[in-house]
Amino acid sequence: MTDLAGHGHMHATGGDPTPLTRSQAAAFERDGYLTVRQLAPPELVDSMRRVTRQHLTERRAPLELEAELGYPGAPSSTEAVGGDAIRRLRGAYGRHPVFRRWVHYPPLTACLRALLGDGPVLMPRAHHNCIMTKLPRFSSDSLWHQDLRYWRYARGELVTAWLALGREHAGNGGLQLIPGTHRQNLAAWRFDEARFLRLDLTENDALVAQRVSVELEAGDVLFFHSRLLHAATRNAGPDPKLAAVFTFRRHDDEPLPGSRSEAGGDVTILPG
Ligand SMILES: O=C(O)CCC(=O)C(=O)O
């Protein structure tokens, strides 16, 4: 296994369920993210891509539309041109066995064990648990945010596994991250009322200047912390950008009672 932990990258070893090394886990702890190349095997990625395309064509519910979310660049209403553009296929775990195969795939769960530590590991159904389907022409910009802004957990130390089902880069709306922000105590005034980082404040310029663009190939996984600042532009390329995205937590990082995070329950990924 090549240890490039200093750059937040490592390579999977032919699909063996090999946990990350200590230094890779330490790089995640320091940077708030880690890229694992070719963690998902090509046949599994191909199957997920095929099912995703079919569900997009059939418009199989539950869906999230770009126009419903209304981020910059999104169609102004569901009646506008492109108003039916799909942003996510929700409820991925329940959609098709191929997504369940991925979530329980031993090389993935071995990485989660290394990143989340001992004890049971769970997948909340309420957050992510989706296929991101960033379409050409009618997608939008996701401004700088922490995923934890609307999630409610005792500690809020969740880890998202973002599996690219095709190439991702700055030109097609690939993710940008600000390393280390998961451990910075960013004051509330730096964010707007929707809890996006305020770009009109010069105090935030130095932070944004530290951003990195993530480039992924199909089968690569980006792990990132639920407090890490990230953003992405709309898709300026000719093809849909597809990614299977699931979030995981330790059993003792509990959702707050009555919150949306609690609704839907969890899937046990590692029993302990
Ligand atoms: O793909 C994107 O535009 C970013 C998605 C994202 O950050 C999110 O849904 O939390």
Notes on the structure:
With 272 residues, the protein is of the alpha+beta class. It has a single domain, classed as q2cbj1_9rhob like domain (Jelly Rolls). Helices cover 21% and strands 24% of the residues. It contains seven helices and 15 strands. It has helices at residues 22-31, 42-58, 66-69, 92-95, 97-103, 106-116, 205-208, and strands at 3-4, 9-11, 33-37, 63-65, 86-90, 121-124, 130-134, 142-145, 159-164, 176-177, 212-213, 221-225, 230-232, 241-250, 266-270. The strands form two sheets. Strands 1, 2, 3, 4, 5, 6, 7, 9, 12, 14 and 15 form an eleven-stranded mixed beta sheet that branches. It has a four-stranded antiparallel beta sheet with strand order 8-13-10-11, with no helix packed on it. Strand 2, helix 1 and strand 3 form a beta-alpha-beta unit. Helix 2 (42-58) crosses helix 5. The radius of gyration is 18 Å and the shape is globular. The two termini are 26 Å apart. The structure holds 2-oxoglutaric acid.
Helical content (DSSP H or I, runs of 4+)? 10-25%
Query: Beta-strand level of the residues, as a percent range?
Result: 15-25%
Total number of helices = 7
| CATH topology name | Jelly Rolls
CA gyration radius, whole angstroms: 18 Å
Number of domains: 1
Mean residue pLDDT: 93
Helix/strand-derived category reads alpha+beta
| Topology order in helix (H) and strand (E) letters | EEHEHEHEHHHEEEEEHEEEEE
End-to-end Cα distance, whole Å, is 26 Å
The CATH homologous superfamily is termed q2cbj1_9rhob like domain
Bound molecules: 2-oxoglutaric acid
Tell me, what's the shape? globular
CATH class: Mainly Beta
Largest sheet: number of strands, sense, barrel closure: 11 strands, mixed
What is the CATH-assigned architecture? Sandwich
Please provide the count of β strands.
15
Taking pLDDT < 50 over at least 5 consecutive residues as the criterion, the unreliable ranges are: 1-10
